């Protein structure tokens, strides 16, 4: 088997890359460990930056997103039960679109398969070889048979726990990491949103986030300890905790309904540098992780593959290698700004158990400054809606 670009992983990064390459007439094959059903059902991100919406539209997968996505021109910050609106439109003239990662994934898989794109689901024991030379190969097992895919380049789009980053010699990568002393418990519910906009809540009991997927479905998150047991969190306990943390009128007005899914998300900041090793390019969560408080993970994955697709297109159309050579540096400038923003949002909104009380007082001052300063809100808004791509290249 042979292709031009071998892609490991069919998350948003791998799928979008193969779609962008297809539009440039470049052939790619995706190898995915899980089943299609599993990949389409994995509930994760919900907020798309305007730049992400634009890339998806240009890639020809924007139709349903434009119909069903909810355009939000601001967010609400709840501090001790009092709401403060951050008005993106007034502050920076921007907005975000609330559209689930599950839906982005389904749209991309449908588009790829409709164009006869090759996605090998349930590809087992994927290993990558020869990427430090000019004959990269990907070996895997499918339906019990061993197979090999020869390619010009490998795109490691296989998420944080994938095989690609781990295949790079340790000495060639620098790892930067911070693990937070808390996790998020998420619950998707069949209940209409209590608010037109997302509510990020700071409270002594811990952080809470009220989000949504549609006019009939809400997505709730609460800060919890990292080693919790899901059985200890029946729906009623989550609703009670959410109500306590949102407080005020929001708590009183909160519509409830049956849960559809519940899961924990650990909180981590992580960057592996550089993002390129020979003919292997890491993209998305395979190279970097942010805590979800800034809603940046999926958006960063999209930004990476946009840069990679351009580099590969330049290589195949005119033999240029400069864009591939600058891939890592170009991506990392955006990645580190998203790291900073996600770390800042996380540090400002969560409770840090057992910390020096001085730090807690500074955190309250940070929140107080934010809700009372237009300049501070403008900085939040500029980062939340997404920094421009142009400034990155
Ligand atoms: P992934 O989606 O992880 O895809 C990797 C793929 O590779 C998977 O399909 C996996 O099965 C496959 N794979 C792994 N190992 C192998 C292997 N060895 N062989 C073959 N295939 C393999 N981001 C936002 O932008 N906005 C948000 O609002 C947001 N909210 C979030 C909320 C939560 C609770 C969580 C957990 C994340 C959130 N994120 C958010 C982050 C976002 O979901 C990720 O950043 C995004 O999924 C990254 O996409 P990816 O394609 O790089 O990786
Ligand atoms: C979500 O809706 O899943 C979501 C929204 C905003 C975040 C994180 C997750 O910051």
What does this structure look like?
This protein has 393 residues and is an alpha+beta fold. It has 14 helices and 20 strands. Strand 18 (276-277) and strand 19 (280-282) form a beta hairpin. The chain has helices at 12-23, 36-41, 50-58, 63-68, 88-92, 101-114, 164-167, 235-246, 248-253, 297-318, 322-325, 327-349, 357-372, 374-385, and strands at residues 5-8, 28-31, 47-48, 70-72, 74-79, 82-87, 96-98, 118-120, 124-129, 137-142, 145-150, 153-156, 174-189, 199-202, 208-214, 217-224, 259-273, 276-277, 280-282, 288-289. The strands form 4 sheets. Strands 6-5-14-15-16-13-17-20 form an 8-stranded mixed sheet. Strands 8-2-1-12-19-18 form a 6-stranded mixed sheet, covered by helices on one side. Strands 3-7-4 form a 3-stranded antiparallel sheet. The mean pLDDT is 96. The structure holds flavin-adenine dinucleotide and P-hydroxybenzoic acid. Residues 45-47, 198, 209, 211, 219, 292-293, 295 line the site of P-hydroxybenzoic acid. Flavin-adenine dinucleotide binds next to helix 1, strand 13 and helix 10.
């Amino acid at each position: 088997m042979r292709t031009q670009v071998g892609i490991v992983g069919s998350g948003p990064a791998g799928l979008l890359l193969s779609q962008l390459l297809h539009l440039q007439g470049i052939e790619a094959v995706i190898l995915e460990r899980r089943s299609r059903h599993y990949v389409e059902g994995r509930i994760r991100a919900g907020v798309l930056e305007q730049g992400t919406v634009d890339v998806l539209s240009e890639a020809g997968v924007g139709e349903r997103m434009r119909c069903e996505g909810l355009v939000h021109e601001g967010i609400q910050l709840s501090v001790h039960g009092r709401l403060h609106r951050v008005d993106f439109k007034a502050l920076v003239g921007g907005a975000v679109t609330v559209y689930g990662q599950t839906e982005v994934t389904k749209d991309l898989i449908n588009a790829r398969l409709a164009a006869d794109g090759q996605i090998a689901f349930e590809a087992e024991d994927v290993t990558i070889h020869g990427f430090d030379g000019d004959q990269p190969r990907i070996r895997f097992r499918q339906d019990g048979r061993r197979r090999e895919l020869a390619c010009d380049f490998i795109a490691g789009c296989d998420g944080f726990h994938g095989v690609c980053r781990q295949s790079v010699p340790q000495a060639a990568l620098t790892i930067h990491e911070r693990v937070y002393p808390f996790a998020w418990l998420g619950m998707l519910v069949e209940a209409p949103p209590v608010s037109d906009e997302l509510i990020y809540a700071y409270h002594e009991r811990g952080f809470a986030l009220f989000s949504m997927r549609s006019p009939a479905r809400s997505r709730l998150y609460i800060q919890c300890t990292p080693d919790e047991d899901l059985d200890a969190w029946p729906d009623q306990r989550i609703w009670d905790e959410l109500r306590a943390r949102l407080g005020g009128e929001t708590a009183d007005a909160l519509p409830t309904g049956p849960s559809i899914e519940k899961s924990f998300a650990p909180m981590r900041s992580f960057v592996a540098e550089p993002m390129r090793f020979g003919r292997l390019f890491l993209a998305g969560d395979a190279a970097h992780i942010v805590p979800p408080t800034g809603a940046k993970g999926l958006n960063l994955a999209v930004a990476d593959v946009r840069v990679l697709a351009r580099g590969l297109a330049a290589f195949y159309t005119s033999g240029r290698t400069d864009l591939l050579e600058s891939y890592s540096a170009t991506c990392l400038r955006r990645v580190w700004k998203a790291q900073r923003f996600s770390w800042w949002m996380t540090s400002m909104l969560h409770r840090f158990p057992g910390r020096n009380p001085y730090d807690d007082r500074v955190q309250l001052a940070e929140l107080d400054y934010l809700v009372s300063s237009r300049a501070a809100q403008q900085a939040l808004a500029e980062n939340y809606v997404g920094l421009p791509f142009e400034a990155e290249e």
